[in-house]
Each structure stands twice: as C-alpha cells, then as structure tokens.
Amino acid sequence: MDIAFVIEKFVLVAIIFGISLVIAMYSTYAERKVAAFLQDRLGPDRAGPFGILQPLADGLKMFMKEEIIPTNASKWLFMIGPGLAMLTACIGTAVIPWGSAITIGDRVIPLQVTDINVGILYIFGVVSLGVYGVMIGGWASNNKYSLLSAIRAASQNISYEIAMGLSIIALLLVTGSMSLKEIVEGQHGWHWNVLYQPVGFILFMVCAFAETNRAPFDLPECETELIGGYHTEYSSMKLGFYLFAEYINMFVSAAVMATLYFGGYNYPGMDWVLANTGAVIGPLIGVGVFFIKIFAFIFFFMWVRWTIPRFRYDQLMHLGWKVLIPLAIANIVVTSVVIAVIEGF
Amino acid sequence: MEPLTSKKKVLEQKPLTFAERMYLPAIAKGMAITISHFFKKEATIRYPEVEREFSTNFRGMHSLKRDEEGKERCTACGLCALSCPAEAITMIAAERKPEEKDLYREEKYASVYEINMLRCIFCGLCEEACPKEAIYLDGPIVPADYLRKDFIYGKDKLVEQPLNK
Amino acid sequence: MTTSIFYFVATLSIIFSLMVIFAKNPVHSVLYLIVTFFTFTVHYILLNAQFLAVVNFIVYMGAIMVLFLFVLMLLNLNKDNEPLKSTLIKVVGVIAGCCLLVTLAGALKATAISDPVVLRNPNLGLVKNLGKELFGPFMLPFELCSILLLSAMVGAILLTKKEKV
C-alpha cells in the first residue's frame, strides 16, 4: 500500500462522488424537462440558457429555507434520517466498474474503487439498508402520515428485495461470478447478459423501480394519500437530502443495470477501437459508452414515471409476491436446466 | 323500468384475458404514446417575449383616438358614460380656448376622462355609443397592479400617441 | 493493525449491546441492535469471511431488523400502556437469567482449556470455497437446514390462517 495508491483511490473516489452529485443535480432538471416534453410543454427555461442553471437556483433555495424541527420529533433521529438516506445512496458507487484499466507510463489504474468478490451482494446490501433513512426519518417526525409512509416504504422494499435477489441468482448462474468486474468482462463486445437473461432483466428492472421508490411504485411519497410521505415534516436542506438521495439512487441503479445486463463499458467493435486509440483514450471511450447507457436508463426511468399511473397498495403487493417471485423462481429453474443441458450434466 | 331513451348502453365487464393481465403490452402502448408527444411541437407561448395573436373582434384596453391632424376626437358628450352598464366612465367637459385649436377637434372637449378598469366589463357598448368614433377597445390586456387607485386610467394612459411623434 | 481494529470494534459491539438493553425507548433499542449487527459485520470481514459478512448485512441488518422496527413502530409502545408483570413472571425471569449466566460461565470455562481452532484454508470464507464446502461435504446438513426453515415458514403461515369451520 504505497502512497501513490492511496492518492489514486482518493482521487477516483472524489471524481465519482462529484460526478454522481452533478448527475443527481441535473437529473432534477432533466426530470422536469422530460416531463415537459412528454406533455407538449417547455419546462424550466428561464435560469440561464435553456434553464441549465435551474438546479443551482433550486439548491440555493433549499439552503436558504428555514430549518424546522417539529417540537415532538425525536431530534437526533430526525437529523440522522436524511444523512443516512444520502450515505446509503452514495456508497453504492464504490464497487461499480466505470471502465477498463487506464495505463499511464507503467502504472495501471483500474477505474473502479474496489473490486470485492461479493460485489453484487454488496450492492444488494446497500440497497436494503437504504430503507433505514426513510424509516428513521418517518418515525422521528412523529407524524402519522410520515409513519404510514415509512411503513409502506419498508414493506415495499422488503417484498421487492426477494424478487430482486432471485433474479440476480439466475444471472449468477450465467456469469459464474459475483464480482462486478468479472461480470462486465464476461460481456465482452456484444455478449451482453440481457441477451441471455431477458426475463431476469425485466424482473430486475421492475424491482429496481420499486427499490428506488420511483413511479409507478412511489407509494411512500404518494401525495394524494400521505401529504408529502415520509418527508412531510422536513424542510430546508434535510428535505433536499431526501430528494437528492432519490436521484442518486436512480443513478446508481441505472449504473447497476447497465453493468449487470447491458455490458457496462463494453460495446461492439471495442477491440478495434482499443487497439487504435491507445491505453488512455480507449478506456475513456468505454467510460463514455457506459455513461451513455446510464443516461438512457435514467431517461427510461423518467419516461416511465410520466406514463404509468401509480399502483394501488394491494396491487403492489400482489405484483411483488404473486407475480414477480414465482416468475423469478421459474427463471432460475429454466436457466439452470438450460445450463445443465448445454454443459452435458 | 322502461328506459326513457334508447341511448342506454349495458357495459359488460369481461374478466381480463391473459394478454391483458400481462401488463407489458399495455405499458408498451402507453409508452409509445408518450414518446410520440416528446417529438411534437410544444403548445407553450413564452409570454412576456412572445404574445399570442388576438382575434379581430377582441376587446382589450380602451384608447381615445385622434383624427388625421392629431386632434383629439372626443367631445365629452357623455354618451359613453351613459351607455356603460358598469358605470365605469366619468368625465369633466371643458371649453376649448382659441390657442388649443390644434389639440381638440370640437369646441368642447374632455379635460378629465377616467375609466375604472376594475369596473369595466369590456362589453364594447361605449365604442358603439360614441358618435365621434373617439373610443375603441383595441388595446392589449389591462395589466395587473397592486393598488385600486392605479386601476383608474386617466387621459395620460388612454389617449392615443400622436401620429408624428 | 488487525488486532487493534478487532479490540476497537469488539468494544463497540459490547457497548452497543449494552445500549440495546438499557435504552428506554424500544425503537432506540432496535436501532442500537442494528448498529451492533453492523459491528458483527465488521468482525466477519476481519475474519476474511466476506460472504458471511454480506449475508449478515443483508439478512439481519437489511431485512430482519427492518421487520422488527416495522412492528415496534406500529405497536407504539409507551410507558402508559406497559402491561403489569406479575411476581411469578419476575421470579421465572430471574431463574432463567441465572441459568443463562451459569451456561455462559461454563462455556467460558470450557473454551479456556480447548485450543483455538486454526483454519487450514484461510480463504474458506470466500464465496467460491464456502459454496464448494456447503454443497460438497456438508450437503446433507445444509439441505436439512433448508427443509427446517421451509417447515418453519409453512408453520408460520398455518398459524396466521384461521381455522375453516
């Protein structure tokens, strides 16, 4: 562990953190723009050219607002809630491989903070931890709507985690590894996992929608029934943290979907490009391709949000337990039978 | 009971077929509709910079007209005030002095002419009542303001700008 | 390095486990329990048992404790509606506690004389090796465990179902 290694990792973490914050910021802007375009409107276009300064204005507004802590709230937990939501949203980026290694001189710099051999499970654990931010915040507010929303969030997350885990198991049967780096490298060129696991991908995507509390599964912040949901009592930057965490979650889950099923930084014809552009530019093109995939997924998230109406709570549970879980189990059985047949028992 | 009209339609609710219960085709259909709107022209008009064109018979803010030589046409006959159903118009008449001959067309003119825009209903009866073709509701929308007194428009706001200036 | 981290984390786990018992508010108590489980996860990582660490993280911290919290939030436990405990229950509690203490003391005495177990393969905790062990030599106990869990699940569902008359 030399000092250069520490600096390298530190810089990488700082860059990834910065990028995910900026993307989350501009996701709020993109969400409003996409919503507007889908509804034949213009969206925010006053702050700066095309309104690109709008997120800064929103952030400034959040900072300048008065901070209110309800009298009967549990003060410390009320403050820990948004911080926890933000933390669990951010640490998911640590195991995602952003690109193949860059070679500068004789130094090989992997574009991944850490490659642990249980990478998928780590992501899964972080996601399952994400619900604590919502639950603690909702309970500490001492408001019945916040509490109801927190409970909804908890049961929704737990229900969909099972289906998500089962869909990942089918993927693991195909890839044979839990390390995200190895999974991505196994999808070289166009051998993307979505071609081998289409059902698994759809299951995973539906669960990702539910885990990030995005429409059509945004029941925890269902305005018509629960005022603002778990962040009813929050104001100022604490509210901002909750809203921000949602967009970072969306970014992370888009990145995970691109990594697991859409080949990460792999693209058809990458060998030729890598051979002709050198050891620095080539991997960076891969990073660019990865980000294009991520943005496509983020756009898809928004597109779905402005198309599909919200599920009712019993429909949500019905879908999770009686449709997705049996489908996921069937997917595992079919996948393992096919693999067994191909490999000749 | 005998139905009164033949328009009654009995809706039969069939259980969903398997394809319908799959959700995904219906979702794909909905998504196709929304994405088609993504490429359509937006209906928004950027208001302060761009204004929507009014129809030809739109009645907006009043203006007091001048004749070809730039003299005010109004002779303070009071017919507009009389015809106004909302009683929004008041005026004080005065006699023209010899040196004001190129300002007013007739010997009598309105020294004060006020319309209360909060009372006005933009019916256009004043326009029809005017024998001298002096008042027309051809202006833009009356802008918003904070105080009631600011909605009483005097001659400074109502009289049309002279042509040569 | 590793030893000092171990002592630090071990102290933390003991402190937080004590907090679980001494916290007045049941929700706070559960939250301390979650932190305790987190320190256990760190212990597993120190032992190079990555799979166990992550599973402890997902299953205990991410799922079971959420359910605990869930139930406690719904129950809304206060001092006012705490049920009165009879003397009999208190006596039984004291006896049970003493039994646990004796067992723990006995276990502690037993470990003092046995040699510490040294793993032949220090990478046993990695997913690949652990899987090979579980589905190789330990196949039967593993499957029996899963059947036990399944029967527990079926039993729980059966208990919640009302008897059909």
UniProtKB/TrEMBL annotation, chain A:
EC number assigned by the record: 7.1.1.-
Stored Pfam families: NADHdh (PF00146)
Q: Which InterPro entries match?
A: NADH_UbQ_OxRdtase_su1/FPO (IPR001694), NADH_UbQ_OxRdtase_su1_CS (IPR018086)
Its record classes its membrane topology as:
Multi-pass membrane protein
Molecular function in Gene Ontology: NADH dehydrogenase activity; oxidoreductase activity, acting on NAD(P)H, quinone or similar compound as acceptor; quinone binding
Among the GO biological process terms of this entry, one is: aerobic respiration
Any idea where this protein resides? Cell membrane; Membrane
Q: What reaction does this enzyme carry out catalytically? A: a quinone + NADH + 5 H(+)(in) = a quinol + NAD(+) + 4 H(+)(out)
CC per GO annotation: plasma membrane
Q: Respond yes or no to whether keyword Transmembrane helix is given for this record.
A: yes
Under the heading PROSITE patterns, the entry gives: COMPLEX1_ND1_1, COMPLEX1_ND1_2
Alphabetical UniProt keywords: Cell membrane, Membrane, NAD, Oxidoreductase, Quinone, Translocase, Transmembrane, Transmembrane helix, Ubiquinone
Q: Which residue windows are transmembrane per the record?
A: 7-27, 76-99, 119-140, 160-178, 190-210, 239-261, 281-303, 323-342
Keyword check for Transferase, yes or no: no
Q: Which NCBIfam families match?
A: PRK06076.1-2
**Subunit structure, per the record?**
NDH-1 is composed of 14 different subunits. Subunits NuoA, H, J, K, L, M, N constitute the membrane sector of the complex.
- Assigned protein family: Belongs to the complex I subunit 1 family.
What is its biological role? NDH-1 shuttles electrons from NADH, via FMN and iron-sulfur (Fe-S) centers, to quinones in the respiratory chain. The immediate electron acceptor for the enzyme in this species is believed to be ubiquinone. Couples the redox reaction to proton translocation (for every two electrons transferred, four hydrogen ions are translocated across the cytoplasmic membrane), and thus conserves the redox energy in a proton gradient. This subunit may bind ubiquinone.
What is the name attached to this protein's record? NADH-quinone oxidoreductase subunit H
Which gene name belongs to this protein?
Answer: nuoH
Automatic annotation (TrEMBL), chain B:
Which reaction equations make up its catalytic activity?
Answer: a quinone + NADH + 5 H(+)(in) = a quinol + NAD(+) + 4 H(+)(out)
Name the top EC class. Answer: translocase
Q: Which SUPFAM superfamilies match?
A: 4Fe-4S ferredoxins (SSF54862)
Q: Which UniProt keywords apply?
A: 4Fe-4S, Cell membrane, Iron, Iron-sulfur, Membrane, Metal-binding, NAD, Quinone, Repeat, Translocase, Ubiquinone
Q: How is the cofactor bound?
A: Binds 2 [4Fe-4S] clusters per subunit.
Q: Where is the 4Fe-4S ferredoxin-type domain?
A: 65-94, 111-140
One record GO biological process: aerobic respiration
Q: Where does [4Fe-4S] cluster 1 bind?
A: C74, C77, C80, C130
Topology in the lipid bilayer is annotated as: Peripheral membrane protein
Annotated GO molecular function terms are: 4 iron, 4 sulfur cluster binding; iron ion binding; NADH dehydrogenase (quinone) (non-electrogenic) activity; quinone binding
Q: Which cofactor does it need?
A: [4Fe-4S] cluster
Indicate where this protein resides in the cell. Answer: Cell membrane
Q: Which residues bind [4Fe-4S] cluster 2?
A: C84, C120, C123, C126
The reply on keyword Membrane is yes
- Record's Gene Ontology CC terms? plasma membrane
Q: Which Gene3D superfamilies does the UniProt record give?
A: 3.30.70.3270
Give the quaternary structure: NDH-1 is composed of 14 different subunits. Subunits NuoA, H, J, K, L, M, N constitute the membrane sector of the complex.
Q: What does this protein do?
A: NDH-1 shuttles electrons from NADH, via FMN and iron-sulfur (Fe-S) centers, to quinones in the respiratory chain. The immediate electron acceptor for the enzyme in this species is believed to be ubiquinone. Couples the redox reaction to proton translocation (for every two electrons transferred, four hydrogen ions are translocated across the cytoplasmic membrane), and thus conserves the redox energy in a proton gradient.
For this chain, the family text in UniProt reads: Belongs to the complex I 23 kDa subunit family.
**PANTHER family reported in the protein's UniProt record:** NADH DEHYDROGENASE [UBIQUINONE] IRON-SULFUR PROTEIN 8, MITOCHONDRIAL, NADH DEHYDROGENASE UBIQUINONE IRON-SULFUR PROTEIN 8, MITOCHONDRIAL
By what name is this protein known? NADH-quinone oxidoreductase subunit I
Organism expressing this protein natively: Pedobacter hiemivivus
Automatic annotation (TrEMBL), chain C:
| Top-level enzyme category | translocase
Pfam families per record: Oxidored_q3
**Molecular function terms from GO:** NADH dehydrogenase (ubiquinone) activity; quinone binding
Keywords for the protein's UniProt record, in alphabetical order: Cell membrane, Membrane, NAD, Quinone, Transmembrane, Transmembrane helix
Identify its protein family.
Answer: Belongs to the complex I subunit 6 family.
Q: Identify the species of origin.
A: Pedobacter hiemivivus
Q: Which reaction does it catalyse?
A: a quinone + NADH + 5 H(+)(in) = a quinol + NAD(+) + 4 H(+)(out)
- Gene3D superfamilies linked: NADH-ubiquinone/plastoquinone oxidoreductase chain 6, subunit NuoJ
Q: Which GO terms describe its cellular component?
A: plasma membrane
- Localization per record: Cell membrane
Q: What is this protein called?
A: NADH-quinone oxidoreductase subunit J
Under PANTHER family, the record lists: NADH-UBIQUINONE OXIDOREDUCTASE CHAIN 6
Q: How does it sit in the membrane?
A: Multi-pass membrane protein
User: Tell me, what does this protein do in biology?
Assistant: NDH-1 shuttles electrons from NADH, via FMN and iron-sulfur (Fe-S) centers, to quinones in the respiratory chain. Couples the redox reaction to proton translocation (for every two electrons transferred, four hydrogen ions are translocated across the cytoplasmic membrane), and thus conserves the redox energy in a proton gradient.
